Structure formats: structure tokens, C-alpha cells
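Cont'd.
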Amino acid sequence: MKLSHYESKPLNALGKVAWSREEDDIWQRLISRQLSCIEGKACHEYLEGLSMLNLSEDHVPQLTDINKVLDKATGWQLEPVPALIDFDRFFALLASKRFPVATFLRSVADLDYLQEPDYFHEIFGHCAMLTHKAFADFTQLYGQLGVKATKAERVYLARLYWFTVEFGLIESSGHRSLYGGGILSSPAETDYAYSSHVPLRKKLDVVDVMRTPYRIDILQPVYFYLESLDALYELQQLDLMACVHRAMSLGLHPPCYREKIA
Ligand SMILES: [Fe+2]
């Protein structure tokens, strides 16, 4: 497991984190920039979730407040975790409708980009969608499958998560919108995924997705779109582990990016 130079902040007996003035200021900068960046680009389900969450803009919101909204909407809860957790714990949490959130916020130096998921990414990127039943149920199913999967199978499952929960688009009748948390928490990726002519955008096919390699440290060269979020229900009807095995037997597509030089 890769080491992080960040550490999660402790929670007090009431489940609250003592965020500093500096962290409140960083949150304010991140959220005000991103709220204007996603305008007209985020899907309406995300925006509805965001409005339910009513995240504060002048200070870092507390997990306890977000949990009240998630509990009412879909029964999900946020689970405070260390900066990095292993896959066994990650899948087990999702399977029990608990979304892991590391309680650290990026520093000013990392304001524009941070490879590891910080509090802003988890809260602003993912929580709004967790109020949406199709998305929340799909995330839970992913956890349930991951718990039982082998290490090799998990790698294929992870690509489905990456290209939906993290980097998913919606496209229908020529209209594009964004729902992936990796996109919606990043100004650069929001503009790129929505507007750029450079990346490839493909209609989501599960086996195709599972065969598509990705890099976590670049703007994505390929995105997969659903025609609506209801398609996440259709995905749940599929035998996704059979799709994993089909993808494994067909093998990976050649990457559409340059390999990272170690
Ligand atoms: Fe994420």
C-alpha cells in the first residue's frame, strides 16, 4: 500500500473534527471554485443531492450533519477512516452502506490537484450522488461483489467503479452531464470531461469497461457514458462476476495513454 503524507484528523466524542481556521479557508476556496465550475455540467441528480446536503461554504462540514441527510435519503453513512485503507475494508464498508471518508483536507500547495482522495473529494465529489437510490444501490452491490472477489477479479471490478462512480458521464439526445465524483471534485477534469474534444467518450458496456486500463494520475483519455442513471439499475441485473470472467478471458485493451515511467 502506498504511503500518504497526510493523516486523518481525530473525531471527538460527538463525532466531530476540530477543523482549523486554515482548513475552513481551504474548504471555502475549494467549494466556491468548484460550485461555479460544475454549473451547467453536473447532472440534475447530483445537483438535487447537493441541495439536500446544503454543505456549508464558509467552514468544513461535519460528517454528522451529512450523515443525517444520507440516512434519510438512502440509509447510507459516512465512515471516518485513516488516509489509506486496504481493499478488504473498503469493500466491506461499501457492502454495509458505509462510505469511507478520510478526515484530512489537502494543503494550499495541493489545492489544484491531489492524487489521493481527501475530504473535499469524498464530500463534494461523492455525497450528493449517495442520496440517489440507483447510484447508492449500485455502490453497495460493488462492495458486496468485491468482498467475495479474488484479488485478480477485484482489479477488473475496480475498472467498473472507476469509470462509473469516479469518472462517469451521462449522455442522451446530444446532452451531456457529469456524475463521477473524480470529475466533479476537480476543476480541470470537470472542464475536460465535459468540453474537450480530446478524450474518447464511449457508451458504457460492462465488459468493455472492465477491459479498459486507466491511470489515476492523468486527465482520463477515455470516459464511458450512461444514457441515464436508471441504467445503473440495469447494470445491477447483470451477472457482473460473469462479466469479470469474460473480461479476464478476453484480456485488456491496449492503453490509450503513455505508460508512466517509474
Ligand atoms: Fe472517489
